[in-house]
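Ticket #694: bound-state structure for zinc ion.
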Amino acid sequence: MSFARTALCFLLLSAIALAQTPTNLPATTTPPSTTAEKPLTALPYTPSLDVASMDKTVDPCVDFYQYSCGGWRKNNPIPGDQAAWSVYGKLHEDNQRFLWGVLQELATRPSGRTPAEQKIGDYFGACMNEPAIEKLGARPLQPALNEIAALKSKKDLAALLAAEHLRGDEGTFFNFGSDQDFADASQVIAFAGAGGLGLPDRDYYTKTDAKSEEIRQKYLAHMAKMFQLLGDSADKAKQEAATVLKLETALAKASLTRVEQRDPHNLFHKMDRKQVQALTPDFNWDVYLRVAGIGNVQTFNVTEPKFYQALNQQLQSNSLDDLKTYLRWHVARSSAPFLSTPFVQENFEFYRHTLRGVQQIQPRWKRCVGWVDRQLGEALGQEFVKRAFSDDMKKRTLGMTKLIEQAMQEDLEQLTWMGPETKKQALEKLHVVVNKVGYPDKWRDYSSVVIKPDDFLGNVQRAATFESHRQLGKIGKPLDRGEWGMTPPTVNAYYNPQMNDINFPAGVLEPPLYDIKIDDAPNYGNTGSTIGHELTHGFDDEGRQFDSKGNLRDWWTKEDAEHFEQRAKCVVDQYAQYTVVDDITINSKLTEGEDVADLGGTILAYIAWKAATKGETLENREGFTPDQRFFIGLAQWACENERDENLRVNAITNPHSPGKYRINGVVINVPEFQQAFSCKSGQPMVRENRCRVW
Ligand SMILES: [Zn+2]
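RESOLUTION: The complex was predicted; output attached.
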């Protein structure tokens, strides 16, 4: 039971989720790797400005992204087991490969392990023990399937669902967890959210184009195959798949779109227990909450009341047998990656191959490292931080962050479109942003999780249960402001509007993203812009609706809010023109916050870099001026190749624009870029009426 909070990340993480959620290959792809794979004993080094990654045959004023990344894109075809390949993705894999060696050693060390080392070592060892997993086949699913089969009446559904949610079968019928109260961020309350879908977004159920229709047909076929793996006949399995799709479609239609979800007011409906019960008369919340171990909870945020009305209607109108069919599908779906090959393969075929175009399943070690990170991430993170992160890196990053915050303060003070009242509150908010760098001050205690060297699915479920209880246990307790929403090896960053904090895990503060061996210019362009990006999230279409304390409260004058919207609209209109794949253009109402953050973050990093190097004479290096190095450093974080199928999924689900536009769409709005490369007006990388928010 967890709740997907509205943290604003730098990237959409595509690492392996517990249940692989729904991820194409051009005909000319790389052949499967035949080289024997080995763990890394040290993290490899690539400079944060790499001339070999450029394509100097391209005019930077025509396509700056290709100029900066052309070499990288040519030299880094998408590996068969990836949906996309990028500088971030490559670093993520290097971190994984490094941790693989660490975990292998811990799994086989005969004695002298700390309790945390025992847990991650044995979890990894059990995960890697494929013969044992194969031998069990579908048997680990049997207890859950028996529970469903034993269901005698719809009244018993609540108890069963609570047990399933605790075990980690997230999202069956709905999502339930805890989060900060939008009205009072110091309080943690229960959150009941929409859910219940097996496809990556509600739009997959409602769109009527040929591609969407094709995916639904393939989804039906996939569900039918899974039912057959559970032992059902082909005919029955086909009917069962149709039953599930019908039910999920009804839930999808009642769910908010991703754009609607960007407005926190659409997701805030505080209710007491009676109101929640009245909303779903056919579901016994008393039983659900008691079994979940939170029988006394009185206050809820039902994020999407309309969804719960539709849910109740589905509980009412479907037969008990049909509800059981739905439950069996979701148990099989969420457990499939942890079972024997037929389940793993069928799950991969649909969610990774069909949806995202991936050609090969990831090697076992990669999936296992990913799951350790997901389930015991702060125990694994300690090992990572010990070996790959230093106090010096933390100090340097904090220093850079301070300078970027200073740049934002100066920027806010001199803004011509924001009045003094709003400015005062904006500055107040900026001054209390908490900067979290590297890893948490206090590590999560996993001592109550039992991890056995010979029980993989059991480990998965026990770790998930621990996490569910941890999340629900926060309700009504003082907020832990030290908590992190990402693990230390993660190559990503985020801003959390209710914590009002920016978070940079150790994994994102490594070369080629942050490279202390070279000059400041590319580092400010790269990591500096990321820091600026996260900071401006506190003031974007979503973040600006929360105040300095993290409460949902409008602190903008009407006039200033209008000025903000006008300026952001310039960016929204610009990105709406960009094509993602085929005839699909960017849904720029969805990407607004990220696009505005990319532009603002770059401007703030540039100002901070100038301040940091004031009075210094900066030299040209490798044939580039310092200003050119800043912008090439910026572009080179975003070098990537992506499969068409994955682009289609991202066009629906990803609030970030594709890498090319995250660079070209920014630099066309920055006059200092035009000067740095002496671009002439009228050239593609120079915009006449520039957008500027921050
Ligand atoms: Zn972001």
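RESOLUTION NOTES: The chain has 26 helices and twelve strands.
TICKET STATUS: resolved
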